[in-house]
Amino acid sequence: MLILHCPYCGVDAEETELHAGGEAHLKRFGPGSSDADFESYLFGRENPKGVHFERWRHVNGCGKWFHAARCTATLEVFGTYSAQVLEPPQDIRDAITAKRPGWSWRDIQ
Amino acid sequence: MSELSALNGAAFHGTVTVEDAGLQGMIALRGDLASAKLAKAVKVATGLAIPAVRKISSEGDKAVAWMSPDELLILAPYEDTGDVVAQLNEALAGEHVLVQNLSDARATFSLTGAPGALREVLAKLAPVDLSPDAFGPGDFRRTRLAQVAGAFWFEDTTTARVICFRSVAEYVYGLLCVSAEDGGEVGIFG
């Protein structure tokens, strides 16, 4: 059972109180973008074995979206953080580096 | 305005007593909870301060509960909700807020019984740590009750209140009754 800490209401919410929102930090390419950018925005997703960043929503709770960093292989959670950021904050990156030295995800290291 | 509560006063007596708590005034207030103007408006309308995260503050027949970082739930007697909404709207004129009377959108249940049995009835339905150290009077929790969204708090150690959407009131009442059935005691909270 995955347990994520909601950074908004402070609850250690278990999976059944949450709703998965897919990959984190997608950059939207809309009207006027190139076909390749639009295609990768729509369909291009990471599928890592290891460190991954996701969006989650505390649906049966405070209702807020947040970000989570976790390992897809072990289900270890490195941390959760605000939805209002475009990339993982430094403390989350440090927490991952402490446990998975040399990790990378997209172009983030 | 509806004249009847969702289950029209139904009651069940098991390890605890589950009752339809009747019509309860509920107002959703969304806005910046850190704003002094909002705090003042809530104070004027209810006499209460804005509660801390996941808390409920209450006095007399009014209460204010923390719903999310930008939402409060104000409880007031059903007949007074119109006045409270008007007071809030007046005090918050020009602010970026939402004041909405949701009394008829929800159902309220009252659970009374021994402290341990009360905790157990809720613990069977929600993924929440209900040990006395983790959750007590003054705490407010939005969560799920089996398959639907709901919220609950303890008024005191022998009384709990449960709210859910009116459309699922019958389902939640059924859940609470099954959870409180005689012979279903686990005894984990003494």
UniProtKB/TrEMBL annotation, chain A:
Pfam families: SoxD (PF04267). This is Sarcosine oxidase subunit delta. It comes from Thalassovita aquimarina.
TrEMBL record, chain B:
This is Sarcosine oxidase subunit gamma. SUPFAM superfamilies: Folate-binding domain (SSF103025). It comes from the Bacteria. Coiled coil: none annotated. Pfam families: SoxG (PF04268).
